Amino acid sequence: MEKKYPPIAGKERGPGPGRYGLPPTIGFIGHDFTKSTSPAYSFHGSLSKKMYHVDSSPGPRYHVNAKLTRFGKDGTPSYSMLGRRKPQKELCRTPGPGAYSPEKAPPCGLQRTPPSYTMGSRTQYRGVDQVPAPNKYSLPPLLGPHVPNKPASANYSMSGSYSAGGASVDLARTPGPCGYNCTAPSVYLPRQPAFSILGRHGLPRDGAEKPGPGAYNPERVTVHKARAPAYSMGIRHSEFVTPLVVGVSD
Predict the structure, then answer these.
(1) What does the angle CA 53 – CA 56 – CA 62 come to, to the nearest 5 degrees?
(2) Rg of the chain in Å (alpha carbons)
(3) What residue spans carry the Basic and acidic residues bias annotation (predicted)?
(4) Do the beta carbons of residue 67 and residue 74 sit within 8 Å?
């Protein structure tokens, strides 16, 4: 039985790339439906003279109003400035803002009004009236504590120096800081903790020998263990390692 092998593409004889025909992508007739189509424009032929006389159309220079769009007329509001109308007798004239005086209106309801004052004329003095001058009035002095209607500040007096027996003559008579009696802070403040220092206790006079710190061995205690911990120095290598033989004697 003959064995079959897979076909080799190089042995096949087929048409080249130029043998295949794809739909065009230019124009509308027979356009490839898998590609998007861009807008296309056509050039019209020149019109005959008879057509020109029948329908005379202007060139590309059109004057299109800016308010006209492809959706219709522009809908934005527009305003115009008109001239002032002539006053007519039969028409009602509307007063301006300056013709009103709202401040002259009387208060209505519970509306509060500010105080108002009037400026009167100067009264005429009679010849028999004796009006005192400004310097005829006397005000109470403001120095010292004896002022009835004014608060008085602290005042101090300066006395002369003593001729004998004063501190300025003999400084030894001046009391020191210990000459003043001061109240303990614990009287008017919470009492703070106080500590006292006691004297040194006397050494025992009996003949008993007391052990020092070095007499104790806490590492040898066997109260809570079976025996005290012990350590041993073992060998570094295993005993099963073959020893190194350097030389053999005869």
Answers:
(1) 165
(2) 65
(3) 1-14
(4) yes
> Which of 27, 46, 29, 30 has its CA nearest to residue 38?
27
Which of 26, 49, 52, 48 is closest to 37 using CA atoms? 26
Nearest Cα to 66, choosing from 78, 74, 77, 57? Answer: 74
pTM value? 0.15
Strand partners, 33: none
Core vs surface per residue 131-154: b (16+ CB within 10 A) or e: eeeeeeeeeeeeeeeeeeeeeeee
Q: Do 147 and 153 meet the contact criterion of CB atoms below 8 Å apart?
A: no
DSSP 128: T
| CA quadruple 184, 189, 191, 194: dihedral sign | negative
Cross-strand bridge partners of residue 72: 69
Residue 100 tokens read as: 């009103």
Single-letter amino acid code for the residue at 181: N
Alpha-carbon gap, residue 92 to 155, rounded angstroms: 82
Query: How confident is the model over 59-82, as pLDDT tens digits?
Result: 666 777 878 887 888 878 778 888
> Measuring CA to CA, which residue among 229, 232, 231 is closest to residue 218?
229
Query: Is the pLDDT score of 236 beyond 70?
Result: no
For 159-205, the DSSP string reads -PPPSSSSTTT-GGGS--GGGS----HHHHSPPPP----PPPPPPP-
